[in-house]
Design a protein that fits this description.
The structure is a homodimer.
Chain A: H1 3-33, H2 40-58, H3 61-72, H4 78-91, H5 99-122, H6 125-143, H7 154-162, H8 168-192, H9 206-219, E1 227-231, E2 237-241, E3 244-249, H10 256-274, H11 291-305, H12 309-322, H13 324-327, H14 332-340, H15 356-371, H16 380-392, H17 417-437, H18 440-445, H19 449-459, H20 469-477, H21 484-497
Helix pairs in contact in A: 1-2, 1-3, 2-5, 3-4, 5-6, 8-15, 8-21, 9-10, 9-12, 10-11, 11-17, 12-14, 15-16, 15-17, 17-21
C-alpha cells in the first residue's frame, strides 16, 4: 500500500476507535451523574463488551502494523508520525494481554466500583474489601503480560503509566521533602490555634450555590457552549471532545467552600482540554496528558488563582450578595484567611492546601506497601487510620471518613494518587514562570481571567499531551522540574498567614 | 452446527447488538438532556458511524440465516423460536434495502428535519414543502424493496409497521366514529362557555415544581432505583433496560399542569417497560410493543387515572401546600374541573382529552390522501387549515400554529400519528376491564397506586411486546378491541362536566 492509502486506512481506524471511545465516555459519564442505581445490572456487561471490542480493535495485528509503518514513514506528515509512535508506545503496555483476561478485569473493575459505592453508603469497609483484593490481584496479573514486566517493580510500572518518567525512587525523594518540610510546619500551625472559618459552615442552600457556580464559571471564562456543569458523588472532569468538556461538583449545604473550589478545580481540568490547539483536537494528543500535568492545571486554578486574595476582590461581592445573612458581617480579609486556613482533617477532597500532600503521602505509602506485599487488604482500614494519626494527628472514626472516602482504588487506579501531589508542585513552578509575563493579581482583580487563560494556552494547553511532562515543564518555565517552588510557596504562605515569623 | 452451538452464536449476537444499542440510546439521551451545544461537531459523525455499524451487524447474511434456522428449530426453546421469528419479521422490512439507498434516505430525513426547523422559525411552509415531497417519495421508494410490497397500499404498509394488524379500513371506521360522535359534542361544549382555569396560569417556580414531581412520582410508585426524571425540550421516555427507565419533562413556570401531566404520562410509558417480566427483560419483546399499546399505558396514567377526581383527593393537598398563594383559594372541585376543561385549540400537544383525537383525525386524513395520491404537498397548509376549521371550528392564522407544528412528518414518520388516538381508545377499554377487579377510585383516593400497577403488570405489562396488539387487548379484557368504550367514556364525562344532560 502507498502511504496515502495507509493514511486513509489510519483515518478509518481513528473514526472507529473514537466512536467506540466516545460511546463509552458517554456511558461512564451517565453512570456517574445520571443513571439509576440498578442500571448496572444491564449496562455493566454491555459496557465491558464494548471495552472488549475496543480492545480487539486497538490490539489487532493490522493496527499495530499500520502504526509501526506510519510512525516510520518518511513521506507521512510529522504529526501523524509522532501520533502513531505515541499510540504504539502506550499500546505496548497492553499489547499481549489476552482479550478474555482484559474483559474479565474490566467487568471486575465495574463491579468493584459499584461495591465501593455500596460500602460507602453502608459505611462498611468489609463490603469493599474482597473487591479491593481482587482488583489488586487482577491489576497485578495484567502487568505480567507486559514486555517490560520484571524490569522494575509492579508499582513502578504503574507509577510510570500515570506519570511518564516517574518511579518510586523519585517519589520517595519528593514525599520525603514534603514530610521533612511540611509536617513540622503543620504541627506549628496546630499549636497556633485556629483561624475563624465558622461562617463557612452556616447553611448555604444548594439552589443558591448552583447559581453562584454559574457566575464563577463565567468569571473563569468557562465556555458553556462547549461544556456543562453537573452533579456527582465525587467531582470530576470528563472531556468528550474539544467541543464538550464536562465538570461535576457536589453541593454541601453546610460547607460553602466545597463546591466553590471543586468547581474552580475542575474548570482548570476542562480548560486544559478546551484549549488544546485545533491541530491536535482530533489526535491522540488531545487527551493523553500525564495525570500530574493535568492536575497541575486544576491546582493552578483552585489554589494559586482561586485562593488568591485578588481573585476574591473581584468575586467576594458576588458571594455577599448571594448570602447576605451568612456573609454580610464577614470582611474580605476574614473570608480569604478562612479559605486558606489550615487544619488537619480527614477528607482529602476537603483538605486545605498545606495538609493536602500529606493525604497523598498516606495513600502513596499504602499503595506501595500493598503492591510490594508488605501489607494486605485485611484490616487496611486500621492501617489507614493509624497513618492519619501519625501524619495529621487525627484518627478517622469510621470507614466513610477513612478508607472509603475515595473511589480511585475501586477501579484499579493504583499509582494515580501520587500525581495529585506532583500536580500541585508543577503548578507552583508554572505560576512562578507566569509571573514573569503577567501581573497575576492585576488580572484577577480586574476580571481579566482571559489573560491568564491565554498564557496557559500559549505555554501549556495548546500542546495537549504531545510533550512528556518533563519536556512540557521545560517548555513552559525554561527549567527542569524543581519541587522547591512548591515547598517554598507553602512555607512562605503559611508562615505569613499564621504569623510564624513574628515569634 | 448443532442447535446448541447456534444458540450460543445467537447469544453472542444479542450481546453485541444490545451493547451497540445501549451505547446509542445513552448518547441520544445525553444529547437531548445534557450535552452542550457544540458537542455535535464531534459526536454526530461518530454516532452516525455507530448507526452504520449496527445496521451492518443486523443486516449480515449470517445473522439472517441464524434467525431463520432458530425460528424453525424444533429443539430450540419456545421463547427463542418466537423471538427470532419476531426479529426476522421486522428485519424483513429493511432487509433488501441497499445500504447506499438506506444511507441516502437517512441523510434526506436529516436534511428534511433541518428544513422543517428552518421553516418553523421562518413560519413559512414553502421552505419545508419540497423536502416533504422528497421524504414521501423516499419513504415510498424504501417500501418497494419489501417482500410484501404491493400486497396492500403503501399507506397500509406503514400503518401496519407502527400498529401491527391495523390498516386504513380499520382506522376509517375508528375515525368515523370519532367524527360522528365527538364533533357534535365539542360544538355543544363550545356554546356552553369556558370553565375557569385561570389559576393554572399563575407563576409556579420551577424549583417547587421539581419537588412536587418527586412526590407525585412517589405516589405513582415510580421506582427511583430503576429510573430517573430529567429535563428536556420535549418530554419523552427512554427505556435503557428493565432496570433503567428514564423520563423527562419540561417546566413551564406559567402553566402548572404542563409538567404534572407530562410526568404522569411518561411515568406510564416507563412503568410499562419496568414491569415487563424478568423472563422477557433481555429479549426483543422488552421494547417492541406497538406504538398504540405503549401510548395506551401513558394515556391510562395521564387521563384515566391522573385526571380522575380521586387521584386529586389524594394529591391536591400536596399542591396546595406547595403553592399556598396560587391555590389557597381554589377548591378541589375547581381544580379538577379546570384540568379536565375542553376548548378547541390549534396545538395538538396542548389539546385537552376531548378535542385531542380530532387533531389526530386531521393528520390521518391528510397522510392517507397524500399517500393515495389524492392530494399533493402543494397548498397542503391550506388543506390543513380548512380541516381545523371544519372539525374544530378554528382556523390557524399561520403555518407555525398550523401544518408546521409537529416534527413527525419531516423525518418520514407517516402512519405514526394515528396510534396516538388509538392508544387513548385502548386505554378506555383497559380501564373498563380493570374496574371489574378493582375499585379504581378507592385505590387512587387511598394512595394504593401499587394495586393499579399490579393489575397492569398482570394483565398487560409483563407480556412486553410478545403479543400482537389485538391479542394483548383480548388477553387483558376478554374482548376484541371496541372503540365504544372510548367514545362512551368521553361522552359521559363531558356531558357530566358541562352539565349537558340538564338542558
Amino acid at each position: 500500500m502507498t502511504t496515502k492509502e495507509l493514511l486513509q486506512q489510519y483515518e478509518e481506524y481513528k473514526l472507529k476507535i473514537s466512536a467506540y471511545s466516545l460511546a463509552m465516555t458517554t456511558m461512564y459519564f451517565d453512570m456517574q451523574t445520571t443513571a439509576p442505581k440498578k442500571s448496572g445490572i444491564y449496562r455493566n456487561p454491555r459496557l465491558a463488551y464494548l471495552e472488549g471490542e475496543l480492545f480487539s480493535l486497538t490490539h489487532a495485528q493490522e493496527y499495530f502494523d499500520l502504526l509501526e509503518t506510519l510512525s516510520k514513514a518518511e513521506d507521512a506528515d510529522e504529526l501523524t508520525r509522532k501520533e502513531t509512535a505515541a499510540i504504539l508506545k502506550d499500546l505496548n503496555k497492553t499489547r499481549n494481554i489476552p482479550k478474555d483476561v482484559y474483559v474479565a478485569y474490566s467487568e471486575l473493575a465495574l463491579n468493584s466500583e459499584n461495591a465501593w459505592e455500596e460500602a460507602y453508603h453502608a459505611n462498611d469497609y468489609s463490603i469493599f474489601e474482597p473487591y479491593l483484593k481482587k482488583v489488586i490481584e487482577g491489576k497485578s496479573k495484567l502487568l505480567t503480560y507486559r514486555d517490560d514486566y520484571g524490569t522494575k517493580s509492579n508499582y513502578d510500572l504503574l507509577l510510570d503509566d500515570y506519570e511518564p518518567g516517574m518511579n518510586s525512587e523519585e517519589y520517595d525523594k519528593f514525599f520525603n521533602l514534603i514530610k521533612e518540610e511540611l509536617v513540622p510546619l503543620i504541627h506549628k500551625i496546630v499549636k497556633k490555634g485556629k483561624i475563624d472559618d465558622s461562617f463557612l459552615y452556616k447553611h448555604y442552600p444548594r439552589e443558591i450555590q448552583a447559581k453562584v457556580m454559574k457566575e464563577l464559571m463565567d468569571y473563569l471564562h468557562f465556555d458553556f457552549e462547549s461544556g456543562i456543569l453537573r452533579e456527582s458523588l465525587h467531582p470530576f472532569t470528563s472531556s468528550f471532545s474539544k467541543y464538550d468538556n464536562r465538570i461535576t461538583t457536589k453541593y454541601l449545604e453546610d460547607k460553602l467552600d466545597s463546591s466553590i473550589f471543586s468547581v474552580i478545580h475542575e474548570s482548570g481540568h476542562a480548560t486544559y482540554n478546551a484549549q488544546v490547539s485545533d491541530e491536535l483536537a482530533e489526535t491522540y494528543f488531545f487527551d493523553n496528558m500525564s495525570m500530574g500535568m493535568h492536575e497541575s492545571q486544576s491546582r493552578t486554578f483552585e489554589i494559586y488563582l482561586g485562593k488568591n486574595r485578588a481573585f476574591w476582590e473581584a468575586n467576594y461581592p458576588l458571594l455577599q450578595n448571594a448570602y447576605p445573612e451568612q456573609l454580610g458581617d464577614v470582611t474580605l480579609d476574614q473570608f480569604v484567611d478562612a479559605i486558606n486556613a489550615s487544619t488537619p482533617s480527614l477528607i482529602r477532597t476537603e483538605a486545605d492546601e498545606l495538609t493536602y500532600p500529606l493525604h497523598i503521602l498516606i495513600r502513596y505509602e499504602i499503595e506501595k506497601a500493598l503492591f510490594n506485599g508488605e501489607i494486605s487488604v485485611e484490616h487496611l482500614d486500621e492501617v489507614w487510620n493509624s497513618k492519619y494519626e501519625e501524619y495529621l494527628g487525627i484518627r478517622p472514626e469510621d470507614d466513610r471518613t477513612g478508607i472509603l472516602q475515595d473511589v480511585h482504588w475501586s477501579d484499579g487506579s493504583f499509582g494515580y494518587f501520587p500525581t495529585y501531589a506532583l500536580g500541585s508542585a508543577y503548578a507552583a513552578q508554572f505560576i512562578h514562570a507566569m509571573r514573569k509575563d503577567l501581573d497575576i493579581e492585576d488580572c484577577l482583580r480586574n476580571s481579566r481571567f482571559d489573560l491568564i487563560k491565554d498564557w496557559l494556552k500559549e505555554h501549556i494547553h495548546k500542546y495537549g499531551g504531545s510533550n512528556l511532562p518533563k519536556d512540557q515543564i521545560f517548555i513552559a518555565t525554561g527549567e527542569p522540574f524543581d519541587p522547591h517552588y512548591y515547598i517554598n510557596h507553602l512555607k512562605e504562605k503559611y508562615t505569613r498567614l499564621y504569623h510564624l515569623d513574628k515569634e
